[in-house]
Amino acid sequence: MRPTRRHLLAAPLLLAAPALRAQEAFPSRPITLIAAGAAGGPTDTITRIVAESMGRQLDQPVVVESIGGSVVGPQRMVQAKPDGYTLLINNIGMAASATLFRKLPYDVPGSFAPLGLVSDAAMTIVTRPGFPAENLAGVMADLKTRGDALNMATAGLGSAANLCALLVQQAAGNRATIVVFRGTAPAIAELMAGRIDLLCDQATNTIPYIRDNRVQAWGVSSPQRLAGLPKVPTTAEAGFGGVAMSTWHGLYAPAGTPEPIQEKLSAALQAALRDEKLRQRYAELLTDVPSPERQTIAFHRRFLAEEVARWRPIIQAAGAYAD
C-alpha cells in the first residue's frame, strides 16, 4: 500500500514520540552530580547539601561524585551524554578557567548548559595575629609599601582565594609574594602560626578562627556586613569597593541537554533552595541562598559570560597561567 499524506505527516511525530516520552518521564533513574572540588571542601559540602534536597524534589537519588581540580570535574561532565543524568556543581573558578587555561578540553561557556546559581559566599580578608594595622586601609598601605616582603597564601590558580588575592593586590597597587597551599586549611594554620601574612578566603572557612581571635579580619567582600561577623566592615565601607566578589556556585548540565530537561532540573534546584533544611545548613556555613532571579537559567547564562569577561583582564594583568 502506498503511503498516504496522513501517513507521511504522522511519521515525524511517531519518530519523536520516544524522545518526548523520555523527557516526560525524566528522571527515571539516579542522577550523578559531580562536585568540582576535593572531598570535604566547600564545593563538596555545598554539592551534598543541594543533592539531598534536589533528590527529594525529583523523587530520585542524586549521587555526588567529588572530582577535584578545576578542569577534571567539568571535563568529566561535558563528556557525558547530554540527557540530564550527569550534572556538575562548580564555583567561580569555572569563569576564571576560561582565561587561566589557554588550552582547555572544552569551551567556557559554550560546552555547558547553566541551570541556575546554587550559593553565594563572601570572602574575608584576614591577617596573622599581631599584623601592624588598624583597619583595612592600613593593611593595604602596608602591602603597597612593602610589596613582596609580605607573603599571601592562596589555594592555587583558579581558587577563590587566588582570585581574591588578585583583587587585593590590584587595589593596593603592589604584589605580595604568593605562597600556594593545597587548600586553605593548611594556609590558615600557617597564618595562625605567624608564618603567613595575608589570606583572602571564604567566611565559611575563616569564621571559627576570627571569632576565637586566632586571625585578624579586616573586611568582607559582600555588599552587606555578614550577620555572623557584624563588626567586620565590607570592603566598600573600608574604601576598597573594587575588592568585591562572591564565591558563587552554579549547577550545570552538558550543552545540548534538551530544554525541557534543563527546565525540570532548574525548577528542582529552585524548589530545593526554598527548603528550610537547606537554608538552615547554609546559614551555619555563612553561605547565602541566591536571590530567585539568580537561580534561573536565563540569569546564570548571562552571569557566567559576564564573569568570564570580568576576570579575563585581571588574570591577564597578573600574567600567571595554569598551563
From TrEMBL:
Which branch of life, at top level? Bacteria
The family this protein is said to belong to: Belongs to the UPF0065 (bug) family.
Signal peptide positions are 1-22
Cite the SUPFAM superfamilies for this sequence. Answer: Periplasmic binding protein-like II
- Pfam family membership, one: TctC
This one is known as: Tripartite tricarboxylate transporter substrate binding protein BugD
Swiss-Prot/TrEMBL keywords: Signal
